[in-house]
Write a structure and sequence with these properties.
heterodimer, A: Aminopeptidase, 5 helices, 6 strands, globular, B: Aminopeptidase, five-stranded mixed beta sheet
Chain lengths: ~150, ~140
Amino acid sequence: MTNVTLATSDQDIEDCFVVMVELHPRLKEKDGSKSFLTRIQHQIKSGYKLAMLRENGSVVGCVGYRFVDMLAFDRFCYIDDLVTKEDRRSGGHGQRLFDFVKEKAEEAGCSYIRLDSGVHRKQAHKFYFRQRMTIDDFHFALPLKQKSSKE
Amino acid sequence: MTVKVAESDQDIVRGFIVMRELRPHIATEAEFLSRVRSQMAQGYKLAILEEGGAPVACAGYRVLEMLYSGRMLYVDDLVTLPAKRSKGHGDKLMDFLMEQARHEKCAELHLDSGTQRKEAHRFYFRRGMLINAFHFGQAVDRSS
Protein backbone atom coordinates (compact mmCIF):
# COMPACT_ATOMS: atom_id res chain seq x y z
CA MET A 1 0.00 0.00 0.00
CA THR A 2 1.50 3.30 -1.05
CA ASN A 3 1.31 6.27 1.26
CA VAL A 4 0.85 9.94 0.63
CA THR A 5 3.74 12.01 1.95
CA LEU A 6 4.63 15.68 1.94
CA ALA A 7 7.13 16.67 -0.72
CA THR A 8 9.87 18.15 1.40
CA SER A 9 13.16 17.75 -0.44
CA ASP A 10 14.07 19.47 -3.71
CA GLN A 11 14.15 16.02 -5.32
CA ASP A 12 10.58 15.29 -4.14
CA ILE A 13 9.34 18.54 -5.62
CA GLU A 14 11.15 18.02 -8.92
CA ASP A 15 9.73 14.48 -9.11
CA CYS A 16 6.20 15.95 -8.95
CA PHE A 17 6.80 18.03 -12.08
CA VAL A 18 5.92 15.30 -14.63
CA VAL A 19 2.55 14.81 -12.94
CA MET A 20 1.77 18.46 -12.25
CA VAL A 21 2.47 19.42 -15.83
CA GLU A 22 -0.46 17.22 -16.92
CA LEU A 23 -2.80 19.46 -14.90
CA HIS A 24 -1.05 22.71 -15.78
CA PRO A 25 0.40 22.29 -19.30
CA ARG A 26 1.46 25.93 -19.25
CA LEU A 27 4.18 24.97 -16.77
CA LYS A 28 5.99 23.30 -19.67
CA GLU A 29 6.25 26.47 -21.74
CA LYS A 30 8.77 28.34 -19.71
CA ASP A 31 9.45 26.09 -16.78
CA GLY A 32 11.54 22.99 -16.64
CA SER A 33 11.53 21.01 -13.41
CA LYS A 34 14.15 23.44 -12.03
CA SER A 35 12.04 26.56 -12.31
CA PHE A 36 9.07 24.51 -11.14
CA LEU A 37 11.09 23.92 -7.97
CA THR A 38 11.63 27.66 -7.53
CA ARG A 39 7.94 28.34 -8.01
CA ILE A 40 6.85 25.71 -5.52
CA GLN A 41 9.39 26.90 -2.96
CA HIS A 42 8.06 30.41 -3.42
CA GLN A 43 4.48 29.24 -2.87
CA ILE A 44 5.51 27.19 0.16
CA LYS A 45 6.69 30.45 1.77
CA SER A 46 3.13 31.74 1.59
CA GLY A 47 1.61 28.61 3.12
CA TYR A 48 1.27 26.21 0.17
CA LYS A 49 1.91 22.53 0.81
CA LEU A 50 2.64 19.81 -1.73
CA ALA A 51 1.97 16.14 -1.08
CA MET A 52 2.64 13.20 -3.39
CA LEU A 53 1.95 9.57 -3.92
CA ARG A 54 4.80 7.34 -5.09
CA GLU A 55 4.48 3.93 -6.66
CA ASN A 56 7.65 1.89 -7.22
CA GLY A 57 9.60 5.07 -6.63
CA SER A 58 7.85 7.28 -9.20
CA VAL A 59 5.32 9.96 -8.39
CA VAL A 60 1.89 8.95 -9.77
CA GLY A 61 -0.22 11.69 -8.19
CA CYS A 62 0.13 14.89 -6.23
CA VAL A 63 -1.92 17.47 -4.42
CA GLY A 64 -1.20 21.10 -3.50
CA TYR A 65 -3.18 22.79 -0.74
CA ARG A 66 -3.15 25.58 1.82
CA PHE A 67 -5.16 26.78 4.81
CA VAL A 68 -6.97 30.09 4.34
CA ASP A 69 -9.03 32.47 6.49
CA MET A 70 -11.68 34.56 4.80
CA LEU A 71 -14.61 36.63 6.02
CA ALA A 72 -16.94 34.38 4.03
CA PHE A 73 -15.90 31.22 5.89
CA ASP A 74 -14.14 30.12 8.96
CA ARG A 75 -10.72 28.63 8.31
CA PHE A 76 -10.81 26.29 5.33
CA CYS A 77 -8.49 24.14 3.31
CA TYR A 78 -8.10 25.20 -0.31
CA ILE A 79 -6.90 22.60 -2.79
CA ASP A 80 -4.82 24.36 -5.46
CA ASP A 81 -4.01 21.24 -7.47
CA LEU A 82 -5.06 17.60 -7.44
CA VAL A 83 -3.86 15.31 -10.20
CA THR A 84 -3.12 11.68 -10.98
CA LYS A 85 -0.88 10.78 -13.88
CA GLU A 86 -3.10 10.03 -16.85
CA ASP A 87 -1.93 6.44 -17.34
CA ARG A 88 -2.41 5.69 -13.64
CA ARG A 89 -5.98 6.90 -13.22
CA SER A 90 -8.92 4.92 -11.81
CA GLY A 91 -6.59 3.17 -9.37
CA GLY A 92 -7.83 5.01 -6.29
CA HIS A 93 -4.85 7.38 -6.19
CA GLY A 94 -7.03 10.50 -6.38
CA GLN A 95 -9.11 9.16 -3.51
CA ARG A 96 -6.03 8.61 -1.38
CA LEU A 97 -4.75 12.11 -2.10
CA PHE A 98 -8.14 13.61 -1.30
CA ASP A 99 -8.41 11.64 1.95
CA PHE A 100 -4.93 12.80 2.92
CA VAL A 101 -5.90 16.46 2.51
CA LYS A 102 -9.15 15.88 4.37
CA GLU A 103 -7.24 14.48 7.31
CA LYS A 104 -4.82 17.42 7.28
CA ALA A 105 -7.77 19.83 7.10
CA GLU A 106 -9.38 18.22 10.13
CA GLU A 107 -6.12 18.37 12.07
CA ALA A 108 -5.76 22.04 11.23
CA GLY A 109 -9.27 22.78 12.49
CA CYS A 110 -10.69 23.66 9.08
CA SER A 111 -14.44 23.82 8.63
CA TYR A 112 -14.41 23.31 4.86
CA ILE A 113 -12.50 21.95 1.94
CA ARG A 114 -12.79 24.13 -1.13
CA LEU A 115 -11.35 24.01 -4.65
CA ASP A 116 -11.84 25.29 -8.16
CA SER A 117 -12.24 22.93 -11.07
CA GLY A 118 -12.13 24.23 -14.65
CA VAL A 119 -15.55 24.19 -16.36
CA HIS A 120 -14.29 21.73 -18.98
CA ARG A 121 -13.01 19.12 -16.50
CA LYS A 122 -16.10 16.96 -16.46
CA GLN A 123 -14.45 13.81 -15.12
CA ALA A 124 -12.99 15.80 -12.24
CA HIS A 125 -16.44 17.19 -11.42
CA LYS A 126 -17.78 13.65 -11.25
CA PHE A 127 -15.00 12.76 -8.82
CA TYR A 128 -15.71 15.77 -6.59
CA PHE A 129 -19.44 15.05 -6.53
CA ARG A 130 -18.59 11.51 -5.47
CA GLN A 131 -16.62 13.09 -2.60
CA ARG A 132 -19.93 14.68 -1.58
CA MET A 133 -18.81 18.16 -2.60
CA THR A 134 -21.27 20.67 -4.06
CA ILE A 135 -20.82 23.57 -6.48
CA ASP A 136 -21.25 26.63 -4.26
CA ASP A 137 -19.82 29.39 -6.42
CA PHE A 138 -18.89 30.31 -9.95
CA HIS A 139 -15.26 31.22 -10.29
CA PHE A 140 -14.88 34.37 -12.41
CA ALA A 141 -11.60 35.48 -13.98
CA LEU A 142 -10.45 38.53 -15.86
CA PRO A 143 -7.15 38.65 -17.74
CA LEU A 144 -5.53 42.05 -17.30
CA LYS A 145 -3.68 43.96 -19.94
CA GLN A 146 -0.71 45.76 -18.51
CA LYS A 147 -1.08 49.42 -19.42
CA SER A 148 1.50 50.56 -21.93
CA SER A 149 3.33 53.81 -21.23
CA LYS A 150 1.32 55.49 -24.02
CA GLU A 151 -1.97 55.09 -22.17
CA MET B 1 -15.82 59.73 -3.85
CA THR B 2 -12.57 58.29 -2.58
CA VAL B 3 -11.28 54.76 -2.17
CA LYS B 4 -9.09 54.25 0.86
CA VAL B 5 -7.20 51.15 1.91
CA ALA B 6 -7.88 50.62 5.62
CA GLU B 7 -4.83 50.79 7.87
CA SER B 8 -5.89 51.78 11.38
CA ASP B 9 -8.40 49.90 13.53
CA GLN B 10 -10.66 52.90 13.10
CA ASP B 11 -10.44 52.62 9.28
CA ILE B 12 -11.25 48.90 9.38
CA VAL B 13 -14.25 49.31 11.65
CA ARG B 14 -15.72 51.90 9.27
CA GLY B 15 -16.13 49.12 6.72
CA PHE B 16 -18.23 46.95 9.04
CA ILE B 17 -21.58 48.59 8.27
CA VAL B 18 -21.10 47.73 4.57
CA MET B 19 -19.41 44.35 4.95
CA ARG B 20 -22.13 42.96 7.20
CA GLU B 21 -24.52 43.13 4.22
CA LEU B 22 -22.40 40.49 2.50
CA ARG B 23 -21.19 38.62 5.61
CA PRO B 24 -24.14 38.74 8.04
CA HIS B 25 -22.65 35.94 10.16
CA ILE B 26 -20.04 38.38 11.47
CA ALA B 27 -21.93 39.65 14.49
CA THR B 28 -19.97 42.50 15.98
CA GLU B 29 -17.48 45.21 15.09
CA ALA B 30 -14.99 43.61 17.44
CA GLU B 31 -15.23 40.25 15.66
CA PHE B 32 -14.93 41.98 12.28
CA LEU B 33 -11.84 43.86 13.40
CA SER B 34 -10.13 40.79 14.79
CA ARG B 35 -10.86 38.71 11.68
CA VAL B 36 -9.67 41.43 9.31
CA ARG B 37 -6.52 41.95 11.38
CA SER B 38 -5.62 38.27 11.34
CA GLN B 39 -6.30 38.08 7.58
CA MET B 40 -4.12 41.14 7.03
CA ALA B 41 -1.27 39.12 8.45
CA GLN B 42 -1.86 36.73 5.49
CA GLY B 43 -1.84 39.58 2.96
CA TYR B 44 -5.51 40.60 2.94
CA LYS B 45 -6.38 44.25 2.27
CA LEU B 46 -9.63 46.11 2.81
CA ALA B 47 -10.57 49.03 0.55
CA ILE B 48 -13.46 51.31 1.48
CA LEU B 49 -15.31 53.69 -0.83
CA GLU B 50 -16.79 56.70 0.93
CA GLU B 51 -19.32 59.21 -0.30
CA GLY B 52 -20.01 62.40 1.63
CA GLY B 53 -17.93 61.10 4.53
CA ALA B 54 -19.83 57.81 4.87
CA PRO B 55 -18.77 54.33 3.68
CA VAL B 56 -20.97 53.06 0.84
CA ALA B 57 -19.01 50.13 -0.59
CA CYS B 58 -15.99 48.02 0.22
CA ALA B 59 -13.74 45.31 -1.17
CA GLY B 60 -11.41 42.77 0.42
CA TYR B 61 -8.58 41.40 -1.71
CA ARG B 62 -5.17 39.76 -1.71
CA VAL B 63 -2.39 38.73 -4.08
CA LEU B 64 -2.12 34.97 -4.55
CA GLU B 65 0.31 32.85 -6.49
CA MET B 66 -0.98 29.60 -7.88
CA LEU B 67 0.33 27.19 -10.47
CA TYR B 68 -2.76 27.49 -12.65
CA SER B 69 -2.90 31.27 -12.78
CA GLY B 70 0.48 32.62 -11.80
CA ARG B 71 0.31 35.82 -9.79
CA MET B 72 -3.28 37.01 -9.43
CA LEU B 73 -5.38 39.44 -7.47
CA TYR B 74 -8.10 37.52 -5.65
CA VAL B 75 -11.16 39.49 -4.55
CA ASP B 76 -12.47 38.01 -1.30
CA ASP B 77 -15.35 40.43 -0.85
CA LEU B 78 -17.03 43.13 -2.93
CA VAL B 79 -20.20 44.82 -1.70
CA THR B 80 -22.19 48.04 -1.92
CA LEU B 81 -24.81 49.12 0.63
CA PRO B 82 -28.23 48.07 -0.78
CA ALA B 83 -29.57 51.65 -0.68
CA LYS B 84 -26.55 52.85 -2.65
CA ARG B 85 -26.55 50.32 -5.48
CA SER B 86 -26.74 51.09 -9.23
CA LYS B 87 -24.81 54.31 -8.77
CA GLY B 88 -21.48 53.08 -10.11
CA HIS B 89 -19.86 52.38 -6.73
CA GLY B 90 -19.18 48.76 -7.67
CA ASP B 91 -17.60 49.93 -10.92
CA LYS B 92 -15.47 52.42 -9.08
CA LEU B 93 -14.19 49.72 -6.73
CA MET B 94 -13.63 47.32 -9.61
CA ASP B 95 -11.54 49.97 -11.39
CA PHE B 96 -9.57 50.39 -8.19
CA LEU B 97 -9.01 46.62 -7.88
CA MET B 98 -7.84 46.36 -11.50
CA GLU B 99 -5.42 49.20 -10.87
CA GLN B 100 -4.11 47.47 -7.74
CA ALA B 101 -3.74 44.23 -9.68
CA ARG B 102 -1.65 45.91 -12.36
CA HIS B 103 0.38 47.69 -9.73
CA GLU B 104 1.06 44.30 -8.06
CA LYS B 105 2.11 42.80 -11.44
CA CYS B 106 -0.83 40.40 -11.49
CA ALA B 107 -1.80 38.98 -14.88
CA GLU B 108 -5.35 38.16 -13.79
CA LEU B 109 -8.10 39.15 -11.38
CA HIS B 110 -10.17 36.33 -9.86
CA LEU B 111 -13.16 35.97 -7.55
CA ASP B 112 -15.85 33.52 -6.50
CA SER B 113 -19.50 34.47 -6.53
CA GLY B 114 -22.20 32.35 -4.87
CA THR B 115 -24.33 30.52 -7.47
CA GLN B 116 -27.45 32.32 -6.16
CA ARG B 117 -26.05 35.86 -6.63
CA LYS B 118 -27.47 36.44 -10.11
CA GLU B 119 -27.24 40.23 -10.07
CA ALA B 120 -23.59 40.00 -9.09
CA HIS B 121 -22.95 37.62 -12.00
CA ARG B 122 -24.50 40.14 -14.38
CA PHE B 123 -22.19 42.79 -12.98
CA TYR B 124 -19.08 40.61 -13.40
CA PHE B 125 -20.02 39.67 -16.95
CA ARG B 126 -20.53 43.34 -17.75
CA ARG B 127 -17.03 43.93 -16.42
CA GLY B 128 -15.67 41.45 -18.96
CA MET B 129 -15.15 38.57 -16.57
CA LEU B 130 -15.85 34.97 -17.56
CA ILE B 131 -16.65 31.87 -15.54
CA ASN B 132 -13.64 29.63 -15.94
CA ALA B 133 -14.22 27.19 -13.09
CA PHE B 134 -16.77 25.81 -10.68
CA HIS B 135 -15.97 26.37 -7.03
CA PHE B 136 -16.64 23.20 -5.06
CA GLY B 137 -17.06 23.07 -1.32
CA GLN B 138 -17.61 20.53 1.40
CA ALA B 139 -18.05 20.90 5.13
CA VAL B 140 -15.43 18.96 7.07
CA ASP B 141 -17.01 16.72 9.65
CA ARG B 142 -15.09 17.28 12.83
CA SER B 143 -17.55 15.55 15.12
CA SER B 144 -15.96 12.13 14.67
